[in-house]
Amino acid sequence: MDTGHESANSFAKSFVLILVLAFGLVGCSSTKVAYRYADWGIVWWVEDYVSLTADQKQQLNNDIAQLRQWHCSAELPRYQAWLDELESDVSNNPPDQATVEYHQQQLFSFFPSLLERATPVATNLLSSLSDEQVQELADNMAQSQREMEEEFLADSPEATAEARADRTAERVERWLGELNSEQRNIVRQWSANRGAQTEIWLQGRRNWQVALLEILEGRDEPTFEAELEYLILNSEEVRGEAYKAMMAESRVAMASLMHDLILAGDNTTLAHLQNRAVELNNDFEALTCSPA
């Protein structure tokens, strides 16, 4: 249940996570529409950071089409099996803490294979950039970082925590429906206990951007592909020890939050969660894989 971590990332990691969101359990009002038009959305998002040539766009579209074909045939059945299990586990009684943790782990388990498959797409694109495009990318990443700091860091720690609570509640409500007053208080307390999570996340994001720009200097070198792969697949290591520790604590805290929110709800909470699983499952079932 993707409710937690503030998960916008730097260019190549963000690019791969855009693929994850586009091909995965997206929060869009229409999963089918988002999935079918993922290629257009990804190219549009990339060009927010760097202007592409016609050849680069064509290569990116071809790579995304191949990735989507693999994902549709190999990964969507795994999502459906998990959603069947989730639907069953919440059909009668509120799940216990262990069950919530299990389903959180199931969701996280979908990401590594997609990240691995998507990394060559990012490699093809980034290795083709000119010096001018790399500079454009660096300028736009810096601008994006400034904007995110302005958006997520309020005038005081208390205001930052309150804004984090609002974002968390919005994400949670996709799965649990509208929160009652007790549930909203739980979210506010949970957010207040996250300490400097937002600041650590933003610093980790900046660390990753610096590392990306460093290896882009050697994008013509034979080691570039391996270096970029490490940067994407070992993102938490690159972002620093504080970030790594924060993410480990955050996963545990999020599972506890979801369990507490379910217990503080009523039958409509479980019904909404079950219906959300059914809705996503139906969307995935309706998607057909085009021939490779």
TrEMBL record:
InterPro entries with a match to the protein in the record: UCP028200
Pfam families to which the protein is assigned, alphabetical: DUF6279
Record key words, sorted: Lipoprotein
Name listed for the protein in its UniProt record: Putative lipoprotein
Source taxonomy: Bacteria, Pseudomonadati, Pseudomonadota, Gammaproteobacteria, Pseudomonadales
